[in-house]
Amino acid sequence: MKSTVVLLFSLFAAAFFSVRPVRADRPNILYIMSDDHAAHAISAYGGRLASIAPTPNLDRLANEGALLTNVFCTNSICSPSRACVLTGQYNHINGSFDLSGRVDPGKQMLAIEMRRAGYQTAMIGKWHLKAEPADFDHYCVLPGQGRYHDPIFRVRGDKPWGKNTIEFKGKHVTDAITDLTLEWLQAGRDQNKPFFLMHHFKAPHDYFDNAPRYESYLADVDIPEPETLWNRDPKFGSLATRGADDELLPHVGTSIGNRNPRRSYLRDLPDLYPDEFPKNYDPADYSDEQNTRFAYNAYLKKFLRCVKGIDDNLGRILEYLESTGQLDNTLIVYTADQGFMLGEHDYQDKRWMYEESQRMPFLVRYPKSIEAGSRFDTIIENVDFAPTLLDFASAEIPNTVQGRSFRSLLETGDEPDAWKQAAYYRYWMHMAHHDNPAHLGLRTKTHKLIYFYGCNYDGGYQTPPGWELYDLVNDPHETKNLIDDPGNAELVLRLKQQLAEMRRQIGDDGSHHPKSEAIVQEFWDFDEEDREKAVQLSRRYLQQRLQELDKDQRSPRTWTGK
Q1: What residues contact residue 403 under an 8 Å CB cut-off, 6+ apart?
Q2: Is 80 exceeded by the pLDDT of residue 416?
Q3: Which residues, 6 or more positions from 21, have their beta carbon under 8 angstroms from its beta carbon?
Q4: How buried is residue 499: exposed, middle or buried, by Cβ count under 10 Å (0-12/13-18/19+)?
Q5: In the prediction, which pLDDT does 3 show?
Q6: Where would I find the beta strands (DSSP E) of 87-150?
Q7: Which region is the signal sequence (predicted)?
């Protein structure tokens, strides 16, 4: 009986992972993804940090390959974004809505199809999905967020998933992940097969513990500040993010300075990184502006030191590939799981649909078919990554994949026929951790429409709904919400119709969380009656938040329950 079961399993495995003939001209594929590395913290993108914190190895990928400026995540939070990359599906289809997200073995499409195409597959670094990455030939992954120092990694072994571990005492996680990748490339893989390697850095996720060797980096530099750190145009935001009469400004979006009484970098960073603040620092001794500037500089310096570690370790990988003659035969992608707010609008973290959070960096080098110095503004979503990588591998793209390959764009410079003209976005984890209301929307090349519907999966813990419209051509930093401008009425109607149609096309029909969808539909038109309801919800929510603060409830579970 036992032998029969083994035989049946072997036959099933052979069918499931049947290997296609390997083409000699196919590239190795190295997919490098960091965590929360905003595009405007890469000097090739030319942001405000480019001159003080250059990233020469990342810039090399851009200079010798392509840089994409309009690449967006569909949900700016770690696990859901990774699930989109792995499956090529939006979160309402792959089921990874929030930080509890998982993609079970047998469904890790990208690894499965690469293996079937004859690639040897590996996943090294930050995984951040609950299930075992069992569909990879090799894995060595951090548990959850993982540690910056003395990191522990989960490996395949005789014990159940999660129990087989290795530890790197005395090492920083960025160095350890690179060591593991280089070890696998040198000795762990089958040199007769092309490789598909997902190399995932933990950095620069907060809190930002850089390797000790970078402590002096930027120490005496005043970090350039975004104008919106200090100035919020009266037209920025909406009832959803400001509240009635601006009463929710302290309570929506965690802050750099002391705006948010629940959570701010001014509250957290002095204890974590006292060396970044004046000796014997007491915020009571300084003005609000001085305190915000202290917190901002501590935040950015620690963040950029982690980025420096990434760039230096990328240099190690490029040097190895070059020394072994594999560099030009390896398709190298560098991206992040989402962007990050670096003080814009006095916000920290990600989750927002605002540009700095929604945009992902995307650099790709493959000189055999991608022209050096290419720049593209085509709208790409992270669900498009997997089919593109599979296309370069001459692998099958399953019909379960919702994204499309943009290989032809990279190789010819022309957008594929009938290519998408808008990116879809939906953040589900209502008011969790960083006080971001649930919202959805679309982003075209010229405009962004955001609908903060303001409730959790169960339709509960409501915050006021509201709509926002930004003209990205004339207002790229999204400072003025134009939704109530009478001259935009026709544009708003057209974009709302486009958003509704996009939801229909990708299957976000509300059936996944119907109580939430009922709220989405209730305030969709946002007429005067809806606006008055939103004002009342603002008043009610403010009282609830103040009661939580009075009881020192600083981490209420907001994303489920009534």
Answers
A1: 88, 89, 381, 382, 383, 384, 385, 386, 387, 388
A2: yes
A3: 118
A4: buried
A5: 37
A6: 120-126, 138-142
A7: 1-24
DSSP state, residue 484 = T
Q: What is the dihedral of CA 52, 53, 57, 63, to 10 degrees?
A: -50
DSSP annotation string for 10-67? HHHHHHHTPPPPPPTTPPEEEEEEESS--GGGSGGGT-TTTTTS--HHHHHHHHTSEE
Cα torsion 241, 245, 246, 250 to 10°: value is -110
Q: Taking the CA atoms of 521, 523, 527 and 529 in sequence, report the sign of the dihedral they define.
A: positive
Q: Which residues pair with 328 in a beta bridge?
A: none
Retrieve residue 432's tokens: 């969790």
**How far apart (Å, rounded) are the C-alpha atoms in residues 436 and 144?**
22
Percent of the chain whose pLDDT exceeds 70 = 96
Burial state string for 118-149 with b = 16 or more CB within 10 A and e = fewer than 16: bbbbbbbbbbbbbbbbebbbbbbbbeeebbbe
Residue 559, token pair as written in the block: 């994303």
Confirm if 94 and 104 have CB atoms less than 8 A apart: no
CA distance 431 to 357: 16
- 3 state SS for 400-431: CCCCCCCHHHHHHCCCCCCCCCCEEEEECCCC
Judge contact between 311 and 57, C-beta under 8 A.
yes
Which two tokens mark 183?
A: 């070890």
Tell me, yes or no, if the pTM score tops 0.85: yes
3-state secondary structure of 504: helix
Identify any residues that bridge with 293 across adjacent strands, giving them in sequence order.
none
**pLDDT at residue number 25:** 75
Return the structure tokens found at 343.
């003080």
Q: What's the burial of 158, exposed, middle or buried (CB within 10 Å: 0-12/13-18/19+)?
A: exposed
SS3 assignment, position 115: helix
Nearest alpha-carbon partner for 386 in 369, 399, 404: 404
Helix, strand, or coil (residue 349): coil
In the three-class reduction of DSSP (H, G, I as helix; E, B as strand; rest coil), residue 200 is classed as strand
Residue range 256-265, pLDDT digits in tens: 999 999 999 9
Q: Which H or E element spans position 78?
A: helix 78-87
Q: Is 369 helix (H, G, I), strand (E, B) or coil?
A: coil
